[in-house]
Amino acid sequence: MVSNKTVLFDSIPNHEPVDSLKIVTQQFDLDRQLAPGEAILKVEMLSLDPYMRSRMRDPSIETYVPPFTLGEPIDNGGVVIVLKSNNAHFKVDRKYYAGFTLPFSEYALVTEASNAFYTDITDAELPNETLIGACGLPGKTAYYSYKQLVRGKAGEKIFISAASGGIGQMLCQLCKMDGLKVLAAVGSDEKVDYCEKTLGVDRAFNYKTSDTRKELAAFGCDIFYDNVGGKMLEDVLDQINVYGRVICCGQIATYNSGAEAYGIKNTFQIVAKRLSFQGFITFELIPQKPFHESKYNTIEEEFMATIPSMIKEGKLDVKNHVYNGIEATSQAFLDLLRGDKHGKTVIQL
Amino acid sequence: MVSNKTVLFDSIPNHEPVDSLKIVTQQFDLDRQLAPGEAILKVEMLSLDPYMRSRMRDPSIETYVPPFTLGEPIDNGGVVIVLKSNNAHFKVDRKYYAGFTLPFSEYALVTEASNAFYTDITDAELPNETLIGACGLPGKTAYYSYKQLVRGKAGEKIFISAASGGIGQMLCQLCKMDGLKVLAAVGSDEKVDYCEKTLGVDRAFNYKTSDTRKELAAFGCDIFYDNVGGKMLEDVLDQINVYGRVICCGQIATYNSGAEAYGIKNTFQIVAKRLSFQGFITFELIPQKPFHESKYNTIEEEFMATIPSMIKEGKLDVKNHVYNGIEATSQAFLDLLRGDKHGKTVIQL
């Protein structure tokens, strides 16, 4: 038996999930007899992503992701080492990336039902946080949606909110490679510097101290890639160009607000400016054939064949914020929703 | 000289345009010498359309239609007879449909700049109100947007707001011809009857006395054709199916509300349900090639070759509300914005 710290979903939050997660120490039997298909994993790193906030809900509300279960561990993506296996998919001592379903705990027992979510990354030659971030869900979200939905053309002006986060940082760089003009909104002056000096965007501003409408009026906007929603979306509707396109990735500004969400009053601009909106979720884009000319069969194949090597060669920058210890989960998630830290949020165990 | 009653734009409204229009009696010289390109028109009928509300604004606000000018006549579409002409486009004693730019007056002097807006309809064999309504702007709006943007398939469920209005009545019938299931929202029980019994929709309800959310939950909704905006749009976002499409034609609920417009809080559903939105304005669709297979070069050609004859043959119903006398303009426009009357609003002079 070893002790196994685990993060349980403890209460449904109305606003910020300040008391929603509880750390408990359970016992885990490393010497247990494994049934066919079972494997024991040691968790090396866990990923926190904003969409997890919508899993912290009353389970009677249906939406695009399953709810967390009260009293059970929360789960998401991460990196694990296989300690013991009775499942051909999981090889002992090798390292796996879990896209989803990895419980927030130090050790985990999985069955064959998990196989599809775990990929062997032993030979990936990149740090765990990069495998989770730029090569994981946020990087893929940015890449797939950029290639399949944004379809940017050189010279087009794109406004990206939460531009230095896990999704935004990849997106900014993809846009610049294709010659788009990028305006980036972030929540601190340090992030402004990062976007302009490291990601190479044309202009970045701190939305807490600058006027979003003035920034948009001065820069112009053909495309809005929206990670934020709320008041910023309203500002964009008034400032975006005729025939503007809005790619709706997330609305982090609204996740904690419940019934007091900001109400957007100027939706008539959709008519007046002939705007289009497109919402998406990442896993539905994975199996799509690339919209552009490509030698790959799916957009995921193309991503895996290009992005990790570009990161190794230093052609793409990645910025992560690493917390230490599973005990940090609750605070890390609050920081993430508040935008208090910089880069993709991961927890090193 | 004859007297020429004219409707002037008299004040910019904040909410309902109760005092914005003023009738004045001017003098008009029927015997004037016409300069080259000039013609004198006698106005037979005028059209009132909801979009005119957005022309009653502070001219410093830019949007998709030009503002009315304070102290000048308002203008829109209508039907005229040519009394006198020094312009080859306008033939004396013939009848013309004006799509736009016809001043609200009993007599009008036009120049060559107006030629493009006037079509000879002397041989149309349809009443003026039908030429303005089902064969004019609202009918074309419904047809072009249905064919080019809705692209409905048999069995798909479409929700249409303001369904018995000028646009809605044509749209309901086009949808039923293609086998869509139609849910219609209207503002009176009489309109419910009309939609169900005459237009043949699958279900209609009075949104003032029925619960829009319950109606949508019971009927289902793949496509929302939005003429209304506001609270109804919010209701739809919560009830529309995953991958739902919203075609944004107008937002009559918001035109009078100014800064107190209803704020839509649940835009996150765009992400969660992977929705798409498309705004449009009619005149930009006119020159498009039909999206579907068609022997016509433009969607307008197709419309003109098919819809008027279907109306003559009784295959399409049209419902208009005819006011008598130019003095009725202000009240008619208020009624239109309030949804108090039934069918396309026109003024018989």
Structural overview:
Chains A, B: Residues 16-347 form the Enoyl reductase (ER) domain. The structure is a homodimer of 349-residue chains. By secondary structure, chain A is of the alpha/beta class. Chain A folds into two domains: 2-133 and 319-348, Quinone Oxidoreductase, Chain A, domain 1; 137-310, 3-Layer(aba) Sandwich (Rossmann fold). The first copy, chain A, is built from ten helices and 15 strands. In chain A, strands 3, 4, 5, 6, 7, 14 and 15 form a seven-stranded mixed sheet that branches. In chain A, strands 10-9-8-11-12-13 form a six-stranded parallel sheet, sandwiched between helices. In chain A, helix 2 crosses helix 3 (166-177). The longest helix of chain A is centred in the middle third of the chain and has 14 residues, at 137-150. The first copy, chain A, starts with a strand and ends with a strand. Chains A and B meet through helix 7 and strand 13 of A and helix 7 and strand 13 of B. Strand 13 of chain A pairs antiparallel with strand 13 of chain B, so a sheet runs across the interface.
User: What name is given to the CATH topology of the largest domain in chain A?
Assistant: Rossmann fold
- Under CATH at level 1, the class of the largest domain in chain A stands as Alpha Beta
| CATH superfamily label of the largest domain in chain A | NAD(P)-binding Rossmann-like Domain
| Tally of contiguous helical segments of chain A | 10
Order of secondary-structure elements of chain A: EEEEEEEHHEHEHEHEHEHEHHEHE
**Quaternary organisation of the protein chains:** homodimer
What percent of residues of chain A adopt helix (DSSP H or I)? 25-40%
Low-pLDDT stretches of chain A: none
Separation of termini of chain A?
19 Å
Q: How many beta-strand elements of chain A? A: 15
Architecture of the largest domain in chain A in CATH? Answer: 3-Layer(aba) Sandwich
- The rough form of chain A would be described as globular
Biggest chain pair interface: A-B, 36 and 36 residues
